[in-house]
Design goal:
The protein is α+β, with helices and mostly antiparallel strands and 605 residues long. It has helices spanning 9-16, 130-156, 186-193, 203-210, 324-350, 365-373, 377-380, 448-453, 534-565, 570-590, 599-604, and strands spanning 20-24, 32-35, 38-50, 60-74, 77-89, 98-109, 112-123, 174-182, 214-218, 226-229, 232-244, 254-268, 271-283, 292-303, 306-317, 388-390, 399-409, 433-434, 465-467, 475-477, 488-490, 509-520. The protein is elongated and about 115 Å long.
Length: 605
């Protein structure tokens, strides 16, 4: 039709996808034609399109959409429709380098119609982000396939559950939560989740606030995004929020994210007995965020005690990246760290209590060590030796656990030989065997070279400590971020546990933790460790000598000042007498005069 103000499926689909400011250019002469059994048309549309979340990309962009339409008739009816569409974006990064062409064919069949659709990118100039544009376009096209089919089926009058979206497929996940939640009212929580207005409290939004998310904005539910069919209810909701980022090299403290949640509730005997929530987390401001996104899958089942919750996650990489292993290990560590607070949150919600204390991204081993050190003032009044623990005085008096870090570097990423830290800024880390604060261990051997070459902790134990009976000596301790040999790898020698990974690729530094159990022969435990350290004794005696030298110098300065400037000083009187005699001898020549009772005046002259 020349007038496209009437509804047609191309315009209706633009509105269905959330696009606005749609304007159709009038058909020019010759742009609608007929020849035999074919009809052809060209129509130009301008619209503001919704842009999928991507780094540096705006939320919307103006676009010119050009349709080339061909209809073929058979027996007086159209049996084939071919539509080629050029999409030219105007406001997105690198939009001047390419445009997209879609080709869709709809053919009549006995059941209705068969639809095929494909797309390609046409680059008008070279760009170094070509592969990124291709991968992002492919991901967006695949994501929009099912909603497009649902739209056509609904327009054709076919029965469906009314959902205008495709639920994401199941992926292989790593399970991080498996817990029972008492008194959790699943039906009530499901009603809140399927409400069109999410201003009311539901546990998904409340959990975002619990973990410190800010700037939370919930997009309005579009047509078909909340549906019901049989014993199932389905919903899709999109949220924009600013999330806290765990400490990591080059990572910002916060990032904007798009959170898409696919919710399914299954009823049994009129009540919800199963709730499935699949969540896609797309980060927008972190390094390499364009290479992957995270999918969480959570299932809540009604149980006699209340509910059983299982939760897992997986990473979906949209393109190759050399930091894939780092992203995987960091994500796993973060998920494990947040699993317990998540369970506590659900338990508090089920019990009707307020939310528990939110997890802190800054908590790490150094914080734990600091809290334990407060209980040992006698040891820490001078200097921490290492991380130590003392057994119960009654059950295991004199038991001492000593931990020491081993630090190493390699020259380049291509070297497989590791050695003691050697860079100028490494400082005390060059000893290789250090305490929790990465300072030279007080029990270290005398030589830096000997300490750096030793393959086991090069420490000389104080006289009153010895290995416990039945003990195994120094042992390597595994950590959540270490490999099979106990090594954890990082960009530099950081103290925070969050910055270490189990894969050595792309890292220059590594560390591992050693531990030994000792017996204190004096049975006084930790209070004697520091004072018995040979290194600490040497430092203490050196400090005493320095203090004595400074006190002696101060005494000399004070004495000299008093001796030189005191009025009663014999040296001043002697100086006055000498000057008076000189004056008496010189006065006949100079005619100078000074009172005889003013020797100080003569002295000054």
């Amino acid at each position: 039709a020349e007038d496209w103000s009437a509804s047609n499926f191309l315009l209706d689909h633009l509105a269905f996808a959330g696009n606005t400011e749609v304007k159709v250019a009038p058909a020019a002469a010759g742009e609608i034609s007929s020849s035999g059994a074919k009809r052809r048309a060209k129509r130009e549309v301008s619209a503001r399109l919704v842009v999928p979340p991507a780094p540096m990309a705006p939320k919307t962009t103006m676009a010119t959409v050009t349709h080339y339409i061909t209809a073929e008739e058979k027996d007086g009816k159209v049996h084939k429709l071919t539509i080629k569409t050029d999409w030219v974006l105007h406001d997105t990064p690198y939009c001047e380098c390419f445009h997209m062409r879609e080709q869709m064919t709809i053919e009549a069949c006995a059941e209705g119609a068969v639809v095929t659709k494909g797309f390609g990118l046409i680059f008008s100039q070279r760009t170094f982000v070509k592969s990124m544009i291709e991968s992002a376009s492919l991901a967006t096209q695949k994501k929009n396939v099912q909603p497009f089919i649902e739209f056509l089926q609904k327009r054709g009058g076919a029965e469906s559950d009314g959902a205008a979206f495709e639920e994401p497929e199941d992926i292989e996940v790593t399970r991080v939560v498996d817990a029972d939640i008492k008194a959790f009212d699943l039906s009530k929580e499901a009603d809140l989740l399927f409400a069109e207005d999410w201003s009311a409290s539901n546990f998904l939004l409340d959990h975002l606030a619990f973990v410190g998310a800010t700037e939370v904005t919930v997009a309005p539910a579009c047509a078909g995004e909340i549906s019901s069919a049989g014993g199932k209810r389905r919903a899709k909701r999109e949220i924009s929020a600013r999330l806290l980022v765990p400490p990591a090299p080059m990572a910002p403290k916060t990032t904007m994210a798009t959170i898409t949640q696919y919710i399914t509730a299954e009823k049994k005997d009129g009540k919800v007995h199963k709730l499935i929530v699949k969540t896609d987390w797309v980060l927008l401001d972190t390094p390499y965020c364009d290479s992957f996104y995270m999918r969480e899958q959570m299932t809540i089942l009604v149980s006699p005690k209340g509910a059983t919750v299982t939760k897992g996650f997986g990473l979906i990489f949209t393109k190759r990246t050399f930091v894939k292993s780092i992203i995987e290990s960091t994500s796993l560590a973060t998920q494990k760290k947040n699993s317990e607070p998540f369970v506590e949150f659900l338990q508090s919600r089920g019990a009707g209590r307020g939310p528990p204390r939110a997890p802190s991204l800054g908590d790490d081993a150094s914080t734990t060590a600091a809290s334990s050190r407060q209980a040992l003032p006698s040891l820490l009044s001078t200097r921490t030796i290492s991380s130590m623990s003392l057994g119960s005085p009654k059950a295991d008096a004199g038991r001492v656990v000593v931990e020491v870090w081993e630090l190493q570097r390699r020259l380049t990423l291509f070297h497989t030989t590791w050695q003691a830290p050697f860079l100028p800024h490494d400082g005390e880390k060059q000893w290789r065997w250090v305490d929790k604060e990465y300072r030279t261990h007080p029990w270290a051997v005398e030589s830096l070279e000997a300490s750096g070459d030793s393959e086991t902790p090069a420490l000389k134990l104080p006289w009153h400590l010895r290995q416990r009976q039945g003990g195994t000596g120094w042992e390597v301790q595994s950590t959540p971020s270490s490999d099979a040999d106990g090594w954890a790898y990082g960009v530099d020698l950081y103290q925070s546990d969050e910055l270490w990974y189990a894969n050595p690729t792309w890292f220059h530094c590594r560390r591992r933790l050693w531990r030994i159990e000792l017996q204190d022969a004096t049975a006084n435990g930790l209070s004697t460790l520091e004072c018995m350290s040979p290194r600490s004794l040497r430092r203490r005696s050196g400090a005493k000598m320095l203090m004595a030298f400074l006190m002696m110098m101060l005494l000399l300065v004070v004495t000299a000042g008093w001796w030189m400037y005191s009025p009663a000083s014999s040296s001043v009187l002697l100086l006055a007498d000498t000057a008076a005699a000189f004056h008496a001898a010189a006065s006949p020549l100079t005619g100078a005069w000074c009172p005889a009772d003013a020797p100080s005046c003569v002295a000054l002259r």
